[in-house]
Design goal:
Layout: E1 6-17, E2 20-32, E3 37-41, H1 48-55, E4 65-73, E5 76-77, H2 83-89, E6 94-97, H3 101-104, H4 111-123, H5 127-140, H6 146-149, H7 159-170, E7 177-181, H8 189-206, E8 209-214, H9 217-223, E9 226-231, E10 234-240, H10 241-246, H11 251-258, H12 261-267, E11 310-311, E12 319-320, H13 325-337
Parallel strand pairs: 3-8, 3-9, 6-7, 7-8
Antiparallel strand pairs: 1-2, 1-4, 4-5, 9-10, 10-12, 11-12
């Protein structure tokens, strides 16, 4: 079997708080293959964005620390790598798209200057060649009149166009991996669909891998090949997109599916919200961290002993963290399909 492009093994991240160091990413493991599209999904506070920031060394400047685990990218170990070496990887071999482009683009520079700077920094291109590449990238992400628009400033672009600029910047150096952190959340549904189609198009053309972080399973259905579901700083389920949508194994995954408007419409019902809220990191419940919100929980099995992440069946690569997974399998499938 070929080595994955990105592999996280037991990655653990902590941040300081008045209650001491809090674990906000707890032994997270998953991989992204080459020419692959993997989605990490979960509610706000699940740890999905911090996981990816930690993987590429972006939590330390925010006061966080990686306390355990491994992150291997294209055969290189990133945990413990110097910031100088990480800077060579970030923006060159790994591109980033963030949720709100206005906070990522510098309002004092034209969009062409900002894309060209990435090319100059990572590829050592001349100013003329970097500018040419910037215009090419704006054209590649379907911004009309790219040569003239490259001389405009971020405030002169709509939200959807600014996101296209961010995509152009992220892929300007032809990265092997693109990390997209909620890139379409702030956009309306029509623009969101166009951004997703653009990402699919760029992935097909270049063969790069994409790691897509989102809270929206509707987005996952459109783009993912494999899905990693996070809750309470842990992975609770991992499976191919087709398998996860057809047969969710964890009550949290089933709850996310039942809350999707598309699924509710097919059933002729209103979306069903998951009761309660995600606990804070200093107050994780005992046992399964989802158990206070789970309608299927059983005292003891779900509330006392930490639940491991295990294969749903011997020899399968689908994983689930649920003490009742075997007995709930048909119930959860019927609940989503009903």
């Amino acid at each position: 079997m070929a080595e994955p492009l990105l592999e996280l093994r037991d990655l653990t991240v902590q941040f300081p708080s008045p209650n001491g160091w809090l674990t906000v990413v707890d032994k997270v493991s998953f991989s992204v293959g080459r020419n692959d599209i993997v989605c990490v999904v979960g509610e706000s506070g699940s740890g999905k964005s911090v996981t990816m920031q930690a993987a590429v060394g972006l939590v330390q400047p925010k006061g966080g620390r990686v306390t355990g685990g491994s992150v291997r990218f294209d055969g290189k170990e990133l945990v413990g790598m110097s910031n100088r070496d990480l800077n060579r990887v970030r923006g060159d071999e790994i591109g980033f798209i963030f949720q709100e482009p206005m906070s990522s683009l510098n309002p004092a520079y034209t969009v062409g200057e900002q894309i060209a700077e990435v090319v100059r920094r990572h590829r050592g291109a001349s100013r003329a060649d970097a500018w040419k590449r910037a215009v090419e990238m704006l054209d590649r992400v379907h911004i009309a009149s790219a040569a003239s628009r490259a001389r405009e400033y971020p405030h002169q672009f709509s939200g959807g166009m600014r996101q296209r600029v961010m995509i152009a910047m992220a892929v300007a150096c032809d990265p092997k991996l693109l990390i997209a952190d909620e890139p379409s959340t702030a956009l309306d549904v029509t623009i969101q669909a166009r951004i997703l189609e653009l990402l699919r198009e760029l992935q097909r053309e270049s063969g790069m891998s994409v790691l897509f972080i989102t809270h929206d399973l509707g987005v996952v259905a459109d783009i993912a090949r494999r899905v990693v579901v996070m809750y309470g700083a842990q992975v609770v389920e991992s499976a191919s997109a087709d398998e996860l949508f057809a047969r969710p194994r964890h009550p949290y995954t089933a709850g996310l599916l039942a809350a999707m408007p598309q699924v509710a419409l097919e059933r002729g019902q209103d979306p069903v919200a998951i009761p309660g809220t995600v606990a804070q990191a200093h107050a994780w419940p005992g046992g399964c961290r989802f158990n206070p919100r789970c309608v299927y929980r059983q005292e003891g099995a779900c509330t006392t002993v930490p639940v491991p992440l295990e294969p749903v069946a011997p020899g399968q690569d689908a994983l689930v963290r649920c003490a009742l997974a075997a007995s709930l399998s048909d119930t959860l499938r019927e609940a989503v399909a009903a």
